[in-house]
Amino acid sequence: LMPFKNRFAPLLRAQGIDITEWNERFKILSIFTRQVDNLTFEIIADAVLYQKKVLINYRKLGQKDSQERVISPQTLVRYRDNWYVDAWCHLREDLRTFSLNRILSACKLKEKGKVIPIDILERHFGEAFGIFSGPVNATAEILFTGTAAYEVSQECWHPRQEGYWNDEHNEYRLKIPYGEKTELIMDILKWGDQAEVLKPLDLRQEIAEIIKNCAKKY
Questions:
Q1: Burial class (CB in 10 A: 0-12, 13-18, 19+), 169
Q2: Model confidence over 70-126: pLDDT tens digits?
Q3: DSSP classification of residue 19
């Protein structure tokens, strides 16, 4: 809020409005924010700016054990109230996205990092849906009804999405390119029975299986 505060402070003072009320009247609420070690953040940010390699100890989602990797950080990303770094992974010899909260330790190395051209980064990370996007593997076609139809029609899930209204049935059909599908599945499931995957078949079947397993627990 600081840029807005600085911009409007003179106007507020001119109107005789107490600037101390700013923090009480304007709020930004962050939810599901994962804690990131301050030193880790500083090391990664510094490596992005100065194009240095970093040795990290990283624990992948759902795993107890961690693994050392050398990465060349490319871009620091704030996404859904959490921090990520797009980087070249020297272990996998490919581009990867790492969640900063799962970096257990980080050490900046003296070696210059591998620099990936911006256009390549944008193609790799920007083509598909979600933070762990990568190359596009398929296009999901999702039918939204009820409240979900209107709400989703107002949202941008991806720059290359396609959306179509069916006024007769009050339905909204969304087409969206995706690669890694975990995040997409979660976003579909949050709308419950107001969202139905039409295509592709494997995504539809996977969500159906998840719903069956959920039903067994209730």
A1: exposed
A2: 999 999 999 999 999 999 999 999 999 999 999 999 999 999 999 999 999 998 888
A3: G
Contact (Cβ atoms closer than 8 angstroms) between residue 33 and residue 80: no
* Per-residue CA distances from 133 to 63, 85, 146, 181 (Å): 20, 13, 29, 8
Q: Whole-prediction pTM value?
A: 0.82
| Cα(161)–Cα(119) distance, integer angstroms | 20
Domain 38-124 has CATH 1.10.1390: no
Where in the chain is CATH 2.30.30? Answer: 38-124
Rounded CA-CA distance 177/141 in Å is 9
Q: How far apart are CA 157 and CA 216, in angstroms?
A: 31
CB under 8 Å to 71, separation ≥6 — which residues? 53, 54, 56, 85, 87, 88, 89, 90, 96, 98, 113
